[in-house]
Design goal:
The complex is a heterotetramer, with 2 copies of chain A (212 residues) and 2 copies of chain B (332 residues). By secondary structure, chain A is an all-alpha fold. Chain A is 69% helix and 2% strand. Chain A contains 9 helices and 2 strands; from the N terminus they run βαααααβαααα. In chain A, α2 packs antiparallel against α9, α5 packs antiparallel against α6 and α7 runs parallel beside α9. The longest helix of chain A has 20 residues. In chain B, strands 1-2-4-3-5-6 form a 6-stranded mixed β-sheet, sandwiched between helices. Chain B has a 6-stranded mixed β-sheet with strand order 9-8-7-12-10-11. In chain B, α7 links the parallel β10 and β11. Chain B is globular, with a radius of gyration of 19 Å. The termini of chain B are far apart. Classes of the chains: A mainly alpha (212), B alpha/beta (332). At the B-C interface, α1, α6, α7, β11 and β14 of B face α1, α6, α7, β12 and β15 of C. The complex binds adenosine-5'-diphosphate (ADP) (2 copies) and magnesium ion (4 copies).
Chain lengths: 212, 332, 332, 212
């Protein structure tokens, strides 16, 4: 079962629902080591995204993700806005013209998205950011795709890796973003952006499984 | 959460509408994006533009006007604005002599302004950016996000705005802004936290006898939690960190800026200023200019920050030059 | 109690020292009593003097300077000053053309100023007094202390100060002050109480969903406790009481003044101003001038007040005239 | 036992002690219907008064009370400063030149003091002010003095009347001073100024009894 236009639209709607449900949770995480807006930002962005994509008619995956990217870019703000905006923009470029993505094309697109985030934010692994969840997820996705796994199998591996990556941020000292101002006081808290990345990937997986 | 508001989602927009209504002629709102524009823009001068999350008022919207900013782009509360805001604002006020973005050093602000700059450059607009990072509470390193931009931003906007008003070129205005940034240092503290309207509860809690030292301006926790001390002790702790950092030396002339975080009464700010003046006198540092009040705030947070800017004749003259904005006004 | 202070007994004196230190030349402290004097006093003009309890900063010390007050006499926090302060301040700034005392209508202020006036008259100084009583929250009657003096005081000090600066005689300046008082009305509300430093605890308590309507500026409880409402509803309730009282009528030109009680951020004040502007527009009342900010406060209280002053050409010109004080400045 | 110079100095010192001890109590009363400073004001004033009179050498009662009056006037502020200042000033004029006061001379002096308060503050009985305690006290003092009572007997009657007067302020609607701004909400609270008046008179009595 690949990810087609309908599946992508459904997944984006599901991601919106998840982020709305976790708005306060993400904001609480951001209160501890940031400025208490990550959940608000993501929910504002994906509310606009759902509005936007529900109005469009899309012939390929790239077109959807381009709208997602542009909408996030102009409605989220903060650090996460440009970062997720770039992520989806880079993915959209890779998926342009495609009616459906299998494990390896999704892996390639996400890898490109991750590169965009790193180029913009300059975070390395263990800086306590979304990269700590996304980077291992992309690795897992690529690896599974390389062994010929199905899209859901590959995404399952990616979600597990994202979860582990998210949890790995707890003991870290933040070196990027607002949490870095806290220095050692950032230790013991889970990074909000890594958490939203995990939520996005796991919702994509669940949405895909429902269709299947 | 106790706030004067109607709907949580409308606080920024309705407050901006109030700013425009209260200062007709001086400022006007952009018709399509959230941006405060100078009433008489565009002018044939370098356009000085700043922006950032809301909740720091009068920064930045209150500094739009003669001799200071040409436009300000407010994001949601404590959230960087988006690139389309800076892009549209620049298009609206740019007068052919280029645009300077004054950006506070926060990951989000830096990235969003950068994107707007890329968009504008792509269209042939001459854009320069200066990132303000004056907060000595933050340990600086190549591997981190660096120091935050705080109180020094107000002083940079005033001084750079005066230079642009006087006809300075984009290169000159940019160089001046970098000079101000290199000579200014700040540090803040909080007695109480503040509440982001959309979050509905305080970003941290403090016991009745505690304070946070080294806070930024986004209701974020500081570097250190301590027992509450006397104004004199607090001022000396902060002033020492600032003075040692540049360092400021005996004989230096400075602008001393005591800034309220929004919920601290003026009586306490002047009391803190008094302790600061004593401390600097002892060190032989000469206060040549001063500013006391709520100029870069964190909603209703109680607390204050100290900013010192090393002055020379150029900076003094530009500081003294006429300014007419909602938040800062003299000479006209 | 969380305040930036050293010793409770020293808050007023140290804050005044800070005011003097931050504005050298503009103001100077009296050498023997608590009084803020104009730096260039005495001048050959009517000396305009006000005063009252501390804790309302920038009122009154922040309004000493060109085009406004010649002297301000601060009492302890929320406590009227004593007659010797007004007496000595008047002696120090009086320039031979007489003295006008602008007194807020509180029993203590009225009595203490009266005693000072008696002492001065006894020595041949020409003293006039005007009592400001603009607070519509207070039911007026011959048998009570009458209405309090609140926001209208700031406007009176500015306008009357301009007239005195322009050479108005004591009779003219006094008559003008009475005119302003007769055309100005105010009302205030609180979201939170405040704490007098020497008392150490809040003067009243409010539940998380409650507000006090009709508060004064001394942390005293208001006339009515209500459930918290939207800014629009609160503004309309207060504006209606003010408009109906004078009454202000369609076509009237007004100065609309939204004043913060000290702990409310500017974002909320402009949001409230926006609702006030809509309300007045509907009534056909024209806002010709405006003022938004913390100008007459109650320490760190959260809340705000609305003041409307009916304008004519004379008042507009005097409002626009240059003023240079720590708290209000334009035109120089 | 009459009130002589030594007794007056002792009484003033005792009044200072009482007001210091009741500072928070009076301030709390003033929080409920005023601006939370009456105890602070009275304590500040009498601290200065004690300083002042401890430095002087006095030959008559009037001179002591004149210093008390002037000191209160220039250190208390608020409504109570001028009112108590006038009270002691008027008393000092009546007691000028006297080495000691008996019941009737004290009654006459206090009556004069009360007149000063009323002339300045224009309060009538039942306006919920210090007048509600002082006026019945002066009446009782006069009446007892008229029937030849000793000073302590007369003051006992005065203190009882002051206490009743103070308590009578509880149900009243304030019509003078800050409490009047509260209108009906002032009902149910005891007036701080009436309370300080009672405390002053009862301390005077106790101090006198100790000497006797
Ligand atoms: N330089 C960076 N690179 C990658 N991710 C980052 C960077 N800076 C911040 N982030 C991510 O952004 C998240 C915060 O997003 P958000 O709260 O929406 O923005 P802001 O910090 O501007 O308030 C952090 O938890 C972190 O995961
Ligand atoms: N007009 C008046 N006449 C007599 N007593 C008054 C009058 N106004 C106020 N008082 C007394 O003053 C007391 C308040 O004193 P205080 O709190 O020290 O001054 P303020 O009201 O200025 O804060 C009241 O409790 C009342 O007894
Ligand atoms: Mg955040
Ligand atoms: Mg943010
Ligand atoms: Mg008082
Ligand atoms: Mg009082």
């Amino acid at each position: 079962m690949n990810l087609d236009v309908q599946g992508m639209l459904k997944a984006i709607d599901a991601i919106g629902t998840t982020l709305e449900a976790h708005k306060d949770y993400l904001t609480d995480l951001d209160s501890a080591i940031g400025d208490a807006d990550h959940g608000i930002n993501m929910n504002r962005g994906f509310t606009k995204v759902r509005e936007k994509v529900s109005q469009g008619t899309y012939g390929d995956l790239g077109a959807i993700l381009k709208d997602v990217a542009m909408t996030l870019m102009s409605s989220v703000g903060g650090a996460s806005g440009p970062l997720y905006g770039t992520f989806f923009m880079r993915m959209s470029m890779k998926l342009a013209g495609l009616q459906a993505a299998d494990a390896s094309s999704l892996a390639a697109a996400m890898e490109e998205g991750l590169k965009g985030i790193v180029a913009l934010g300059k975070a390395q692994l263990e800086d306590k950011t979304m990269v700590d969840a996304l980077s291992p997820a992309v690795e897992a996705l690529k690896k599974a795709a390389g062994t010929g796994a199905s899209l859901t199998e590959a995404l399952e591996a990616a979600v597990l890796a994202a979860q582990a990556g998210m949890e790995s941020t707890v003991p870290l000292v933040a070196r990027k973003g607002r949490a870095s101002y806290l220095g050692k006081r950032s230790v013991g808290h889970q990074d909000p952006g890594a958490t939203s990345t995990y939520l996005i990937l796991s919702t994509l997986l669940m949405s895909l499984k429902e269709v299947a | 959460m106790k706030k004067l508001m109607n709907k949580v989602d409308d606080v920024v927009v309705q407050s901006l509408a109030g700013l425009e209504a209260a200062h007709p002629g001086l400022v006007k709102l952009h018709p399509s994006v959230k941006a405060v524009l100078r009433g008489d823009a565009p002018k044939a001068k370098v356009a000085v533009i700043s922006g950032g999350g809301s909740g720091h008022e009068p920064l930045h919207g209150g500094y739009v006007g003669y001799g200071m900013l040409d436009a300000a782009c407010p994001g949601e509360v404590f959230t960087s604005p988006t690139p389309d805001q800076m892009y549209e604002a620049a298009k609206a006020v740019e007068g052919g002599k280029g645009v300077l973005f004054i950006v506070k050093n926060y990951t989000g602000d830096v990235m969003n302004f950068q994107m707007a700059a890329d968009m504008l450059s792509g269209e042939g607009v001459n854009v320069a950016q200066v990132v303000i990072d004056d907060d000595v509470a933050v340990q600086d390193s190549l591997y981190t996000a660096g120091r935050r931009g705080v109180g020094g931003t107000v002083l940079a906007e005033k001084i750079v705005g005066a230079k642009a008003e006087a006809g300075g070129s984009l290169e000159e205005v940019k160089a001046l802004c970098e000079k101000v940034n290199s000579q200014v240092r700040s540090m803040g503290m909080a007695l109480t936290p503040c509440t982001v309207p959309a979050a509905g509860k305080p970003t941290f809690t403090l016991a009745d006898d505690e304070m946070e030292i080294g806070i930024g301006i986004h209701g974020e926790p500081g570097r250190q939690r301590m027992k509450l001390q006397s104004a004199k002790e607090i001022v000396e702790m902060m002033a020492k960190a600032i003075v040692d950092d540049l360092p400021f030396k005996a004989g230096d002339e400075v602008l001393a800026f005591v800034n309220g975080m929004g919920g601290t009464p003026q009586m306490e700010l002047y009391l803190a200023y008094n302790d600061l003046a004593s401390y600097l006198r002892e060190k032989g540092i000469v206060i040549a200019r001063s500013l006391v009040g709520n100029y870069i705030t964190s909603l209703e947070m109680q607390g204050f920050s100290i900013t010192l800017l090393k002055l020379d004749d150029e900076l003094k003259a530009l500081w003294d030059a006429p300014v007419e904005t909602a938040g800062l006004r003299w000479g006209r």
